[in-house]
Amino acid sequence: MNMSMHFVDSSSVTLLFKFWDVHGPAGMVLSVFVVLLLTVFYELLKVLKVWLGEQAVPTPPPRHPPEALGSSDALASSPSESSLGSTVQQEPAKKKWLRHSLQAAIHVIHVTLGYMLMLCVMSYNVWIFLGVIAGSIIGYFVAFPLFSRYS
Predict the structure, then answer these.
(1) Whole-model pTM?
(2) What is d(CA 150, CA 50) in angstroms, rounded to the nearest whole number?
(3) Distance of alpha carbon 40 from alpha carbon 136, whole angstroms
(4) Cβ distance 110 to 42 under 8 Å?
(5) Ranges of Low complexity compositional bias (predicted)?
(6) 14-43, pLDDT tens digit by residue?
(7) H-helix or E-strand containing 14?
(8) Residue 12: helix, strand or coil by DSSP?
(9) Where in the chain are the domains?
(10) Under DSSP, is residue 19 helix (H, G, I), strand (E, B) or coil?
(11) How many other CB atoms sit within 10 Å of the CB of residue 143?
C-alpha cells in the first residue's frame, strides 16, 4: 500500500473504508460532494448542541423597564428580588434526563463525524481537503444565523 505524506491532486483515493475506493473524475466529484455535505452536517450539529444546552438553562421572567420603576404602582406590583428565584420553573427530572441523553447522543455523533472528516483530510487528497474546507465554510454560513437567532 502506497500512502503519500503530501497533498496530491489525483482522482484516485480510498476514503475511510475499503468500499469507498474512488477511481476517476466522476467518483471524485461525488466523493467531494458527500464529504462537503458531511461537513455541513458537522457544523449544524455544533449549533444544535449549543441550542440544546441553552434550552436547559431556565430563564427568569422579564423585568420591568427602568422608567416604570419611578412610580409607586410599579414598585408595588413588581416582584421582590427574593421572589424572582421562585418564579423560575425547574425542568422535571424525566425531561432533564431525556435532554441530557439527547445531548450525549448528539455529542457522540459530532465527535465521530469529526474524526471521520479528519481521516478524510488525512487521505492527503487536495480535492477532498477542499471539500472539507468548503463544507465548513458553507456550514458555518448556514448555521451562524440559526445560532444568533437562539442566543
Answers:
(1) 0.69
(2) 9
(3) 6
(4) yes
(5) 67-86
(6) 787 888 788 889 988 999 999 999 999 999
(7) strand 12-14
(8) strand
(9) 12-59+66-150
(10) coil
(11) 19
